[in-house]
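Submission sheet (multi-component)
Chains listed below:
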Amino acid sequence: MSPLTFFPLAALIVACALGVILNLHPIRSALCLAMTLFLMAVMFVFLDAHLVAALQVIVYAGAILVLFLFVIMLLNLEADLPQKRRRVLTMAASAIGVVFALLSLRPLFFPGGALPGPGFDAAVPAEFGTATGIGELLFTRYVLPFEITGVLLLVAVLGAVVLAKKKLV
Amino acid sequence: MLVEILIILIKVLAVLGMVMPMAGLLGWIERKGSALIHDRIGANRASIFGFAGAGLVNTLMADPLKFATKEDVIPRGADRLLHTLAPCVNLFPVLVAFAVLPFGDVLLVGDREINLQIAPLGIGVMYVLAMMSLGVYGVVLGGWASNNRWSLLGGIRGSAQMISYELPMGLAVVAMILTYGTLDLQEMARAQGQLLWGWLPAWGILYQPLAFLIFLVAGIAESKRIPFDLPESEAELISGYFTEYSGMKHLMFFMTDFVEVVIVSALVATLFFGGWQVPYLFASGFVFPGGATIDLPNLVVVLLQMASFTFKIIFFCWFQIMIRWTIPRFRYDQLMHLGWLGLLPLGFVNIVATAIIIMVRQ
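Outcome: structure written.
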């Protein structure tokens, strides 16, 4: 991925992410989140991870975020928190955010330090990002985390069914 | 480099130049066809020097002109930005979804091989699903940003319906992926060029009739037309999520529905009816089961393939319009029942059965 595409795209993603927390209206926040996730998918495309990009759009932008919107629209939320509490929360959240940003940029503060990762002009293996490549990794090297995630999701689904059923009785 | 960009541009223009007029033509088929079904005359007023072209002047020239010159109204209290954005967000994903649909095999120009598909993506059909899953945003936004209760109801119904029917659609596609062993639509279309027992074209519908049914029903539901038009249902919601739209924005919502009809037809044709395949037509020309052959130059073969694909798309568009004017609207509970209790379990059963058959045959 060339820096010429990375930096504008990254800036856009950060701008959209800021839009999520700075917008006062929940619907606009949710839409900014959708844009962020969609642009992340674009980033994945430039990183040759086509399958992950498609899944990102289908699952997050196309399904989960729509559910968010659905709920927000039904509740018709307006200003959510009292002014004073919001100010306190903003301060606390900003402080935590700055700390995390500094932590993740930590290597840059040492002389000769660089961020981890292969860099902009790294070569990509042939199978990288394809359905075959990811499938093979999931069923060989990462089979245990993959299965555990499956079980976790199953538990979550069962929990959702139980919670939804309770109301009917 | 420049030549390659030029080739891609020509392909993009060719596909858009086919899809957009086809969507317009569908408007004509819809109006005159429904008139035929209703035993009335239908659009016949607009004419140029007495030439009405069986309503073509009306639907292809007068109507767009009318839409273009109408006042663009944004209701008071509406979210102006999102209200304007919604029709664009609605139309964009369905148009770009055409990028991975193959409309022919390989065209030879000089010593250059041109793959007749705008973007040969490895994830092919997943990309189409991703784009179609984004289509719901236009509906939700249009419904919410209009500051109108009918619109909001339409938007909520639309999002619920589109999410519900995306699942069976995806499951039907998964069955096809299992059958062909690839995600690339061009590879799928090529795989359907083989012959079963030496005479029967190996089209997808022969392997997966159930997936075809699921996909077609879910596809029609995705385009939000009768019998699945609860998001619009003009008798109770005025016009649903685009009640508060006029002029070109209204036309864009209108177009989206038709383009969705076209893309569902194109997907059905590609996944289940051989895509651009013409029975017994191979790269060198026709080879009939009896042994007779007709040699054809590459250009003729490609043109025949494109004509075949176009014909299949038009057939399924016509089929969807017939359904739209034949079947009454579902009730909301029937819609949800069909989606979650009918198509979804069927889709799962189909996938498991397909997987078992593939396992056994290996």
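Remark: The mean pLDDT of chain A is 83.
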